[in-house]
Design goal:
The chain is α/β, with parallel strands linked by helices. It folds into two domains: 188 residues, Leucine Aminopeptidase, subunit E, domain 1 (3-Layer(aba) Sandwich), CATH 3.40.220.10; 306 residues, Zn peptidases (Aminopeptidase). 34% of the residues lie in helices and 20% in strands. It contains 16 helices and 20 strands. The strands form four sheets. An eight-stranded mixed beta sheet has the order 8-9-11-10-14-18-15-16, sandwiched between helices. Strands 1-2-7-6-3-5-4 form a seven-stranded mixed beta sheet, with helices on one face. A three-stranded mixed beta sheet has the order 12-13-17. The longest helix is centred in the middle third of the chain and has 27 residues. The chain binds ligand BES, zinc ion and magnesium ion. Ligand BES binds next to helix 12.
Length: 519
Amino acid sequence: MRLVISKIGFGFILSCLLAYSAYAQTNSTQFEFADVATSAEHIAIFVGKDGELSKAVTNINAKTKGRLETALKDAEFEGKFGKKLHLYGLAPFKSIIVVGTGEDELSVRQLRDLGGYVAQANSNHHSISVVGDGLNTAVEQSAAQLAFGYALGSYSFDKYKTKTDDDDKNQTRTISFHTEGFEAAKDLFENDLRHLATGVNFARDMGTEPGKSIYPENYAQGVRKLFKGIDNVKVEIMGVAQMKRKNMGALLGVGQGSIHDPRLVIVTYMSGASDEAPIALVGKGITFDTGGISLKPNSGQWQMKSDLSGAAAVAGTLYAVAKRGDKVNLVGVMAMAENMPSGDAIRPGDVLKTMSGKTIEVISTDAEGRLVLSDAVTYAQEEYDPRLLIDIATLTGSAARAMGEDYAVVITRDWDLAVDMMRIGKAAGEDVWPLPLNKNHYKAIKSDIADIKGSGGNPGASIGAAVIGTFIDEDRKWVHLDIAGVDWLKKARPTTPKGHAGWGVRFLDAVVRENQQAE
Ligand code: BES
Ligand code: ZN
Ligand code: MG
């Protein structure tokens, strides 16, 4: 017995988004869950550290007339966690992917990683059957976690590669997960994790798409399309005239050097009690960061196409939460602008007046993220009075230097909140680590001619946070995430291929899950 549960490929959303482009979705993956293994040609199995075969794998071994066990022994496969082995010619199977699970009881995060390892090992993009029974774990519906890991680990961005007719990737492939109690796993995947994977992969699409193709206006339209038809969601797009009325001089200032006008994109998902204050997620959405007049050096500048990672994570999270149908009030505010040098651009030394009324002296036009966020967080607070405000931004090279690709920087005014964030991130598979914010960082942004200045030396990540903090109400529960180091990976991880990570969707989703009031 089996149930086909998903036919939506992850290219689907982007193809809707960029409907005018010649993009056609080709590499679609469908997931299914079933109880017993079918007569699949390609399978994946898991083997623990002691090399002992689970009941399900023992059955597979019997089908190969014991040659699987011999092959594992001959390969001296020790079953270390994440170790992969690809076996061919063990009839009746064409290929068997073997992934080690180690000796410890498997966590949710590790199960997801195992699914990702299978995806990466299946580099020929075959339809495969994954034998998910008999894993050493207390996690319920573990097969759904494997499938989620697979959905993340198999992501690729192929739309600009010329396709050949016989390209394997063009075929629809089916990944089946075999496990007892598969209906519950199907349920969890279908109603929850599938949407989360789509949210993550949407963010990856946005961060990978070149700056030529994504700018504030069409990002906003894409978000509108993404949320079309989802219950309890409203999308509002603020243009220049409305921003002027709200005196958003910082967001307008950053956007004024580009031929593409800035936008403030607001997504509300109101499904909680009507008297419940929402959680607000505020994202930096610079569709390309040249640095402006304070031009960035040539080297690595191309990667600044992903300077909208914060906004993309906000959209991806709202998508996951809204599709899941959580009973929560959640608001996303995305500050979209392109930071370009031109005759119209703001200059170093210019003073911008923000929506809050406070003025900022621009020291470097390359410190643009904090400028757009100053107006966005003010808007979020004035309009929604959130019970928790999280801003997320590729804000500083300083954060990237401090943490590398392992941890996003988290800055709060409340140590307990920082500890909560570390715990949530660890479980969700996206780690955060704190840096300080104290009065010295606020002192460093004192300006001679304005209320504050936009930047002021080291430590850059804390000083960037101080600029944003200047606009956050003192008693507001506030979390600042600087994701400059983690949004783009030079080296693949099990559930994150090299390139844009879609960082933050899993993290923010986990924060929202944990911060829901009991019904
Ligand atoms: N978008 C950059 C930060 C960044 C750097 C993101 C590397 C990803 C990788 C941001 O707008 C920026 O340019 N920050 C400056 C601030 C400085 C001028 C105070 C920086 O970190 O150098
Ligand atoms: Zn930037
Ligand atoms: Mg910059």
